[in-house]
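yo

u said u wanted the structure for the complex thing, so here. seqs first:
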Amino acid sequence: MVVASGAFALLIAAVFVLLVFAIRGQRDSANRAIRAQEAISAGNKLEKLAIDLETGVRGYVASGAKPVFLEPYSAARQAYPAQARELEALVRDNPAASATAQKITGSINDYVDLYSIPMISLANDKIDVARSVIVNGTGPQRIQAIRGQFQQLFNSERALADKRTSQASSRASVAVGFGIGGLVIGLSAVLVLAIYLARSVVRPVREVAAGAERVAHGDLSARAPDQRSDELGDLGRAFNTMAASLEHSRDEVAARTAELERSNAELDQFAAVTSHDLKEPLQTVTVFAGLLDRDYRELLDDSGKTFLDSILAGTDRMRTLIRDLLEYSRVGHGELQREPVPMDELLDRARDNLAGRIAEKSATLTSDPLPTVDVDPKQLCQVLQNLLSNALKFSDDDAPEVHVSAALFPGEWRFSVRDNGIGIDPRQAERIFQPFARLGASKEGTGIGLAICQKIVEHHGGRIWVEGRPGSGSVFHFTIPDSASTEDRRPATAPAGVGA
Amino acid sequence: MLVLAFVPVACGGSSATKTAAAEGPGVGKPPVTFGTKNFPEQFLLGELYAQALRAKGFHVNLKSDVGATEIIYRALTLGTLDAYPEYTGILRTVIGDKTTRAASPAQAYNDARQVAGAEGVAMLNPTPFQDRDVLAVTAAFARRYHLRAIADLAKVPRAIRVSGAPEFRTRLEGYIGLKRVYGLHNLVFRPRRIGTQYAALDNGTVDAADAFSTDGQLTSTSKYVVLKDPKNMFGFENEAPLVRQKVLDMEGPAFASTLNAVSATLTTSLMRQMNASVVLRGASPTSVADRFLRDHHLK
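structre next:
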């Protein structure tokens, strides 16, 4: 490509130089033609002066040597040397014309010195002799001979000018031919270069661009040509490396996700199966411990009674654990039964379910008007119920207050459950959503409620988090995508300013 | 009377640029402008003198065909010309205004020399040949009527047609003289342009013709006979170079002696032969003069 560009530049330069030479040649020939014209003009003037010399002498003699008749002769005699020099200067570059011009000057000089001067002198004192001599004299022939020399000079100058002109015009024709040829070759070269560029640059770049387009649309198998050894090849290879790396990462992610999903499913399956299987022996233990308590309690001493109570409490707790575990494993399985549900109703339902404990704690539960959202009502009721239960659980004994509110953020509703309980250490804020993560002072529950909440909220495409400080209450937030504003279930980023 | 048709070929000093000899008495002398009158014999004389001078180292600008006596002599006295060949009779009558005929060639020469000398012009030695008017008839015509001299024409028993230039009719050295000096009464004048008279003789249009004594045609004695002029009716016309005295002084004695040496060799028959070469055979005066000078060791 560099060679082609160089050759093209050389070609253009050569054509340019030729054109410059042709133009200069034409200008030279034009100058020469002008100079020839000037020489002919100067020659014509000199010729006229020579004729003036002859007619002046003749008129002087014919008039009987009257001085007034000599004036044209005198004027011509005074003027001709300068005119002759001008002519000689103008034809200096034409050897033939130059020689002729010198001959003309010599002839006129001779005419003046050897004919006109003696003739005028003769006329001055022997006018009759002068008249008879001039009648038979050769003055007109002499001037005629000089005019013949002029004709020779003019022909020589015209021939030279014509020759120069024809030389220049043939040179110009050659140059124009070269110019046209150069243009044709140049245009062809441009065309070839364009095709070459299209093939070797534009097409590979387009292929890379098309590959990038396919990658952008998710087809990571797209590849660009990478056989070339130049920068385009580098581009193609870089693109391919990138695409391959992307594809590899995606495959890896997909594989890991599949693996994760499989192990999650297995885990859920295991939990469900295990819970069921555990229920049987637990039921046996519970039944026989119950029988033992009912029929043989009085036979036991105090230690025995204490052990029996421990067994009963243990089986009770075990049953709760298994139930919660089963519930946790069930959440997030199967299709969500979504429907537009007023959250007020769900809150009422949760409140009813917890009516006993609310009354027991003398708790005050308030709420703002809540929106209607597109959710699985049973699961969302569970979330509210768990959060309320949690709030009651970690509240001071006297008059806990719980407030439920909702706010619309871009693309999602955020629900908040605020209590005035013991608060939470921000360092524990993450941990509390893990299954069975019971915090130190907890007296009831299995510690699976918040984990279930998280699973449900995330299943709905939302997020859940907690804010709060020990001793100043906690706020549990969870978001539900606003079905009216977006169908996108991707988790929205956490609003700024949220956190401890 | 000596005016010939203008000959362009000889115009403009064609030999003026001839290289001068590398050595000789003329080397370093001022250039000389040497002219000639306006007919072929003069062109030849110009070449003879100029080449001889150049052979001696003189620088000569030869200006052939300057003009008739009145003009060329005026150019000489005005100083635009330095030298030219002139004829004694012409100079004495045309310039010296002599109305009487000279008694001898020597008297003609002396008269001419005085005329020139009065105006600062030197006349060098005269040539043996004369170029004067003659009356020529065909050899056949001469034989038939036994003609040897002009006076013999009286014996011809019929009118004699005589050709000559127009001015010949009114000149004493012409038609008038023929009648007065030789008492011829059977003449008829036939004006003709100079140069055509031999053809007229040949085809019988005229019986006698005015001609010049050195005409090349007269070399052929079997064709033409020149009638003797014992009374010297046509005068004497030896040729001698005229040179301005100033020029002669500047150029030194070798200048005159060179010209005199050339003049001394020029007899009537040699001049006729050289004229014949130039006029009848078309040889150039330059080459004819060159050959002659070499043959006579003058170059």
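Chain B has a mean pLDDT of 90. The CA atoms of residues 230 and 241 of chain B lie 27 Å apart.
cya
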